Amino acid sequence: MADTVSRQAGTLHLASLSTRLAELRTQVRRRHGFVDRIALALHDPDSGRLTTLIDPDHAKLQSLGAGYPVADLRALAALADDGKTHLLDAPAIGAVDHEASRLWAGYRSSLAHPVTVDDKLLGLLLFDSRTPDVFDTRTVEDLGIYAHLLATIVSQELTSVQMMVGGLRLARNLAHLRDIETGAHLDRMSHYARLIAREIAGPNGFDNDFVEHVFLFAPLHDVGKVGIPDCILLKPGKLSDGERRIMDGHVALGVDMVDRMIRDFGLGRLPQLALLRNIVAHHHEYLDGSGYPNGLGAASIPLEARIVAAADVLDALCCTRSYKKAWPMRDALAEVSRMSGTRLDPQCVDALLRCRDEVEAIHDHFELPAERHP
Ligand SMILES: [Fe+2]
Ligand SMILES: [Fe+2]
Question: Ion ligand 2 — residues with CB under 5 Å?
Fold first, then answer.
């Protein structure tokens, strides 16, 4: 799970990185007009391949299909682990296989600079030209300086986002230690959320990046429960009105935590974090305005929060609680469809019903451990 999180966190910095790459390209082109593209190919540590490209000319992450194995690239251009810039000329690019040709389609020479953090390869910063053999020694030295600068920014960016996600996960895990939500609940609900997001992102004008961020942030929806006193959080019986008000305050506490972390880590420029904030702030709002804390109506509840609400409700029904038994999936889905259009977004409910087999597979995969709810 930790691996998945860090991998997903790697996509968070897309927007700000794209902007920085574009800025760098403007500067570089003033001195070296033949540099046609500056892009960042992200390295997937699990497969050892370059799988994704951040190119400022494209608003979205570009998938490189199965990806290009870095090991092959090393052999090809003597790209060593020494953190230095390496030159690929036209014949070398011509020699790379079909998958890699996606990476360099239309380019005839390329300068590749590894971006590393703690000796781990995060990706390759590429300076590409449509002209063959344009990188002479002086250009390589000059671009090396820019490359170093950007490599530092990239690694800082990535590290700070990972710190943020790590910090919130830590907080969530502390809450978990206090037995608010079991890990299995968070695993299941985040997979349901990803499934719903995958089904409805396209029709709502969102891309795969949105889907993965929903998945990354969904388990943090109740992070604010860390601030709720044990006597209320762990109370086996029904809460009094006063206790209920305090309990409901977990939403405001969570928003506060997220805002503070965004501020402390200087991450305000990362637009994807608005999605995290929306999930934390609005996961208890219902379409008909009967939710809390703000009683928002359908039009005001962000899609990511509606997705998480549906996923969370479905799994809550399937969990054992102090006041109820775990419902069988069939009954839980029937209940969720009763809530469709009033409390829950029909698009989300329909996605769950449409993918019933997958929903059941997720449920069975993250089998309920002996839940510690009394
Ligand atoms: Fe909550
Ligand atoms: Fe939950």
Answer: 312
